[in-house]
What does this fold into?
Amino acid sequence: MGKATHVNEQDFESQVLKATTPVLVDFWAEWCGPCRMIAPIVEELAGEYEGKLKVVKVDVDSNQDIAFKYAVMSIPTLGIFKGGEMVERLVGYMPKQQLKRRIDTALGASVS
It folds into this structure.
């Protein structure tokens, strides 16, 4: 079963920007209530999209340069990266079905 991987400033480029599959990046922090609410959903999505979408987590407190580079002003922010570029930005908590619709659209899949 797929699982979200923690990445940091040292491996962000290799794990996200140079990934051969699209990547969902969860920008979060330990103290963030909405981040804790969405975390189990992100883990479920990692399993459901295994093989189609890589899921990683970036702690914005420990990796401020990445957060700054991608203008993460509010958390949780979920970014979908394809070919090294952020193609979709989802800010704030949202229900799983809404997240899946946005992910499917960004991946180019049909929306159910």
About this structure: Residues 33-48 form the longest helix (16 residues). The mean pLDDT is 93. Residues 38 and 48 are 15 Å apart (CA to CA). Residues 5-105 form a domain with the Glutaredoxin fold (CATH 3.40.30.10).
